[in-house]
Amino acid sequence: MSHTSHPYAMRLGILRPWRSRWFSGRDFKKLLKEDVQLREFLEKKLRGMLVDSIDIERSPSVLNVIIKTARPGLLIGRGGEGIEKLKKEVEMFLKKPSKTSTGKTGIKLTVEEIKSPEQHAKVMVESMAQDLEKRLPFRRVLKQNMSKIMASRDVKGAKIAFSGRLDGAEMARYEWLKEGRMPLSTLRADVDFAKGRAHLPYGDLGIKVWIYKNEVFNKKENAFTKKSKI
After folding, report:
1. Residue 105 pairs with which residues in a beta bridge?
2. Are 39 and 56 in contact (CB under 8 A)?
3. How far apart are the first and last CA of the chain?
4. Domain 9-113 class in CATH
5. Contact between 127 and 50 (Cβ < 8 Å)
6. Which residues form the KH type-2 domain (predicted)?
7. For the purposes of burial, counting CB atoms within 10 Å of the CB of 83, is it exposed (0-12), middle (13-18) or buried (19 or more)?
8. Looking at residue 172, what is its pLDDT?
9. Residue 81: what are its φ and ψ, rounded to 5°?
């Protein structure tokens, strides 16, 4: 029986960085659980804002949450009201003060804009979930978003899959559409993957998106490929 590997986890340390970047010897279990709960809280809170990823970096005094989104203006708000409100909600959720005893900021929120939303699987999943929740026909959503993804110059292939009671049918089924190449077993292939759900009156619909950009041969030095120069 075959096993399915997650395209992101399969490329960790090769093409992809860890989403949580910190080290702790004693409190590893506690901090890892905190990261998972914080990420779930933010994903639920920021649903509809086309968030691609939530990265967490920790230092002894600062917790930095990096939110990558296609709608930074909607998240930041007028005069930074939105980001300040979100920061207070994160502080209440984690029960941490905004400033430490040394005067340094305890929690920091960084918002990064995504230049090409069509090249990011998570953004496309959220966009399709919104369309399906507006009760648009699933085939139209499938074809429109596939053409939108493939119109991007850097995309070499894509696959979209829907599952569940499509269009309210009594029996659940699985429908998918694929264009271009999709080399899932090639580690140097830059494949972005994401999955999500659309909440409808007759039940949830599952959405999965794979986007293949290109093969990476000469990747720039990062935290995984750097070698100590003597």
Report:
1. 99
2. yes
3. 49
4. alpha beta
5. yes
6. 38-115
7. middle
8. 94
9. -65, -40
Q: Where are the domains of the chain?
A: 9-113, 117-215
Its pTM stands at 0.83
| Cα dihedral 218, 220, 225, 226 in deg (nearest 10) | 140
The whole-number pLDDT of residue 223 equals: 44
**Structure tokens belonging to residue 23:** 């080290």
Distance CA 227, CA 74 (A): 40
| In contact, 87 and 129? CB cutoff 8 Å | no
- What tokens does 134 get? 């507006």
pLDDT at 227: 45
Position 99, amino acid: K
Q: Closest by alpha carbon to 48, among 114, 128, 118?
A: 128
List, for the chain, all residue ranges whose pLDDT scores fall below the cut of 70: 1-2, 96-105, 218-230
Q: Which residues in 43-82 are b (16+ Cβ under 10 Å) and which e?
A: eeebeebbbbbbbbebeeeebbbbbbbbbbeebbeeeeeb
